[in-house]
Amino acid sequence: MSQLKVEQRKEAKRHVKETVRKEKAARAIYSAVGILLLVAVIGWAGYSVARSIANRVPTSYSYETADLTAISDYTNGLTE
User: Fold this and answer.
1) How many domains are contained in the chain?
2) Residue 77 falls within a domain, yes or no?
3) Residue 18, domain member (yes or no)
4) In 1-80, where does DSSP find H-type helix?
């Protein structure tokens, strides 16, 4: 090996802790960014689904009254 390679290896050995710390920090940043993106995509999908469901549900309801005279006549006929 050339003297230059030997010097480079010695230098790399001296900075192992610093290199490992930088790699761990980079890995943590990538993980955090990935988690944030995942949460954003899931949130967007949930919002889209909720919005599409809300658009399908009618906003106003119409109530109709039932004609209960037949039932009233029947119950009155039973009591007589």
Assistant:
1) 1
2) no
3) yes
4) 3-14, 16-56, 69-79
- pLDDT of 78: 82
Q: How many CA atoms lie within 13 A of 78 on its CB side?
A: 5
Distance, in Å, from the CA atom of 24 to the CA atom of 66, rounded to the nearest integer, reads 71
Per-residue pLDDT of 18-75, as tens digits, reads 989 999 999 999 999 999 999 999 999 999 999 988 888 776 777 888 888 888 888 8
| Distance (Å, whole) CA 33 – CA 56 | 35
**Token pair belonging to 51:** 């919005």
Residue 74 lies in a domain: no
Domain that holds residue 36: 3-59
Distance CA 9, CA 6 (A): 5
